[in-house]
Amino acid sequence: MPIYEVTEGSSSGTSFYEYQGRYHGIFSWIFSTDHKRIGILYLAAIMVFFSIAVVLGFLMRLELIAPGPTIMKPQTYNAIFTLHGVIMLFLFVIPGIPVIFGNFFLPIQIGARDVAFPRVNLLSWWVYMTGAALVILSLFTGGGPIDTGWTFYAPYSLRTTVNVPLAVFAVFVLGFSSILTGINFVTTTHRLRAPGMTWFRLPLFVWSLYATAWVQILATPVVGITLLLTLMERMVGVGVFDPAKGGDPILYQHLFWIYSHPAVYIMILPAMGVISEIIPVFSRKTIFGYKAVAFSSIAIALVGSFVWGHHMFVSGQSDLASVIFSLLTFLVAIPSAVKVFNWVATLYKGSIELAPPLLFALTFIFLFAIGGLMGLFQGALATDVHLHDTYWVVAHFHYVIFGGMGFTFFGSFLYWFPKMFGRMYRKRISYISWFFLFIGFNTLYFSMVILGWEGMPRRYYDYLPQFHTLHLISTIGSWILIAGLILFFGNLLHALFRGEKGEDNPWRAATLEWQIPSPPPTENFEKIPTVDRGPYDFREK
Amino acid sequence: MQTYKDYTGSKIGMWLFLLSEILLFGGLFILYSTYRYKFPADFHLAAGELNRIVGTFNTLILLTSSLTMALSISSIQKGNRKISMILVMATLLLGLVFLLNKYFEWATKLHHGVYPNSPTLLERNKGEVLFYGLYYAMTGLHGLHVLVGLCLLAGLCVLIHKEKINRTSFVMLENSGLYWHLVDIIWIFLFPLFYLIT
Q: Is pLDDT of A12 > 50?
């Protein structure tokens, strides 16, 4: 029961996997300008980096299983926690959902054949891969792997002997890729919507990608220049962040967080978009308060750009600045809460089907609510003095980023896998993997909540004996979590090669991507559809 | 597969890119204003040493190059391919002269031992060290943008010659023009900040 009239087959009648373009073999992928192929390219690359970063996290936890040296030296530990952060954030979480699922589904959801600048899209993948290659290269050249933490704080990053220059340059390159994707998505949303696809008929995933893209365009250049200056500082010693020469390291922190705080919204907004897709589909009900959800994305992007100072409450910035940043931080909780309440209201009296994607979406709400509320403790000036730089902070951002973006990333897979690959995974196994992920996650990170509250500082190689039990529990949690990850992705890999052929619209969803064959044909639509209803209108035509 | 062209889309994309460029320089302008506020006297001293005549000359050159760039676009719109090409080349030439001037300016400073981390500079006040640090960082990054612009202009000459850029399809020329004007505007801010306000 297609809601939109779409002619069977497409321009070539074959799926985009089978379509032969100008090139063959591997070149038909790495030189393809098809947004779907680029999405898959990103997927392949990102899964590799994600696995590496998971292993690094696993090793870190293993070191902390008991006090004192366990499996590595302190310097190795410093390098590993830095790399875990750099790879997870810059190579997985920040690009993550937009470049994989955004690339694949943004054009289809708005009824377009591709993004506005397909060649720039391919370029951004190449730039991303170049940045990633430079990160890897920085480990084995110069003074070896960086040990500054993912924030590269001056003046330590100016003094340490390890290979900071190449690493910061690599992150600069990755930022460039992010800007190009942002420009592409904003232009695509403005120019390529199908006839009848008005702004308020856009799927909410598109709204969230649109808000994210603006943050990518406006915030990324600021970290770009900060990293370039750090590079110049290391190469020629311009002095702008070096206290010995009159420079102010606090300014480094300001410039760094002007980007890196909005960056957490680059991470979480697309995830919120996915949740806004999944919840209406599995409660067979239109989203509660479409406009509120759409505009709260913009509000989060906007207000979120002015809260960076809350990372610096104990840095010695002025009290007035701290008070203002604290107030703004509390304000950003409002649009986030608007979303959560609207999702819950959507579920209310819906015809709920607890399919795997919805299970992960609900887990997102649960974990994100915990992480978000923990954020309010840090946003309050007095409590932050106690919590700053402890495991509480580590737990907080793992709850919002892993519990939020991570679980949504898994949910996106479960939701769109049948469309992307035309095959269905085993639902039973995805439920079981959810159980391991959920239990493992909370064992791993809730221990950190308590550890932080009790005063365990973050980034430490060793700890006092009184923290031993919780560290041990946390490490055991990491094993359960990894078991869940193996089961989850093993299930998907199995489905990729052996899975049953999926239907075109297994979830009976109403957005455009479900009205075309699975996997989608090259150029998506033979005839551009005309849209006459909203994205969550499940009435049959 | 049909070719797809979207004039407005291309322009939107370019404007978004320019916006990100402004924010790239924005970080440097924040640093400049903070340090100027912190070390007004040192900035005054250091700025007095820059050669205002060379600076003014370079400003004039860059403004003229923006004019030739704009004229080349209206020429192509009227179908005067040859004139458009000459104007792009003129822009390229003016850009080269700008960089040449910059080169001599930097060379003189280096000759006097005033460059980041130099012993001569480090003996001076902290504000002056920062002034010159920012001077090299900001004019350097700007110079890099001029250099990229020159490569773009050279590419445009080829495309106009091949008639890939023509009366009906000139958005690439226009977008490059926008980029060139941005480079110009950034200089318009750099010039007073380093040469005029002492």
A: no
Whether B12 and A187 lie within 8 Å, measured CB to CB: yes
pLDDT tens for B131-161 read 999 999 999 999 999 999 999 999 999 999 9
pLDDT tens per residue across span A83-114 = 999 999 999 999 999 999 999 999 999 999 99
Task: List pLDDT tens digits, range A188-199.
Answer: 999 999 999 999
A256-288 per-position pLDDT tens digit: 999 999 999 999 999 999 999 999 999 999 999
Q: Looking at domain A28-515, which of 3.30.160.340, 1.20.210.10, 1.10.490.10, 3.30.460.80 is its CATH number? A: 1.20.210.10
Report residue B3's pLDDT band, with 50, 70 and 90 as the boundaries: low
* A127: contact with B, CB 8 A cutoff: no
Phi, psi of A514 (to 5 degrees): -85, -5
Instruction: Give the list of residues 6+ apart from residue A526 with CB closer than 8 angstroms, or none.
Output: A6, A7, A9, A10, A11
Q: What pLDDT, on a 0 to 100 scale, did the predictor assign at position A4?
A: 38
Which residues of chain B does A221 touch, with a Cβ-Cβ cutoff of 8 Å?
Answer: 20-24, 26-27
ipTM field: 0.94
pLDDT at A541: 65
Domain boundaries in chain A? 28-515
Query: Backbone phi, then psi, for B195, in 5-degree steps?
Result: -100, -35
Neighbours of A146 (CB within 10 A): 26
B12 CA to chain A: closest CA distance, Å? 6
State the amino acid at position A369 in one-letter form. A
Task: Name residue, tokens 């996290």.
Answer: A57
Tell which A residues from 217 to 276 touch B, by Cβ distance under 8 Å: 217-222, 224-226, 228-229, 232, 236-240, 245-248, 251, 254-255, 258
Question: How far away is chain B from the Cα of A512, in angstroms, using its nearest Cα?
Answer: 22
When pLDDT is averaged across residues A215-230 and rounded to a whole number, the result is 95
Average pLDDT, chain B: 94
pLDDT band at B2 (very low <50, low <70, confident <90, very high): low
Which residues on A lie below 8 Å from B19 (Cβ)? 217-218
Give chain B's end-to-end CA distance (angstroms, integer): 60
Q: Which helix (H) or strand (E) holds A423?
A: strand A423-424
If contacts are CB pairs under 8 Å, which of residues 149-168 in chain B contact chain A? none
Report pLDDT for A142: 87
Residue A345: CB atoms within 10 Å: 16
Side-chain half-sphere exposure of B193, counting CA atoms within 13 A: 22
DSSP string, A337-362: HHHHHHHHHHHTT------HHHHHHH
CA atoms within 13 A on the CB side of A488: 27
A237 contact residues in B (CB cutoff 8 A): 116-117
Q: Ramachandran region of residue A142, left (φ > 0), alpha (ψ -120 to 50) or beta?
A: left
User: What's the whole-model pTM score?
Assistant: 0.94
Q: Are A171 and A178 contacting, i.e. CB atoms less than 8 angstroms apart? A: no
Query: What pLDDT was estimated at residue A13?
Result: 62
Domains contained in chain B, CATH given: 50-196 (1.20.120.80)
**Count of CB contacts below 8 A, A vs B?**
113
Instruction: Give the Cα separation of B194 and B28 in Å (integer).
Output: 13
Give B-chain residues touching A230 at CB under 8 angstroms: none
Please report, to the nearest 10 degrees, the dihedral formed by the alpha carbons of residues A304, A309, A312, A314 taken in order.
-120
Identify which of B6, B17, B133 has the shortest CB distance to residue A238: B133
